[in-house]
Amino acid sequence: MTIYFKLIILVICMSLSSCKSIIANPGKPLEDNSLELNQKYEIQDFTAKINKIKITSVDGKNIYGISKKGDFISIDKQQIREVKKVKVVSSIVVGIMAIAAVIFVPI
């Protein structure tokens, strides 16, 4: 039982560390309808600064959001290098399904 418990903890840690999907990067430009309002994103600009924000509004030139500290942030779309969407719930579900497959599927 302790081996399964260690395996469960390991899979959950791995799934939480890889729970981001890339929305835009230098090879894949940011499209107007790719960002959803009230969702959490990590936005990296060309100065390598990473902003973790919840998107409140998007217009033709800027993206507006709120950080975890409650600060209002405005980012110019031309200065965005990479956008990642945080998907914690789906990663946990995949991890649990992998654990269930290991436990219940006979080898």
From TrEMBL:
Domain of life of the organism encoding this protein: Bacteria
Keyword Signal: yes
Bilayer-crossing regions: 88-105
Annotated signal peptide: 1-24
Record keywords: Membrane, Signal, Transmembrane, Transmembrane helix
Designated name of the protein: Bacteriophage spanin2 family protein
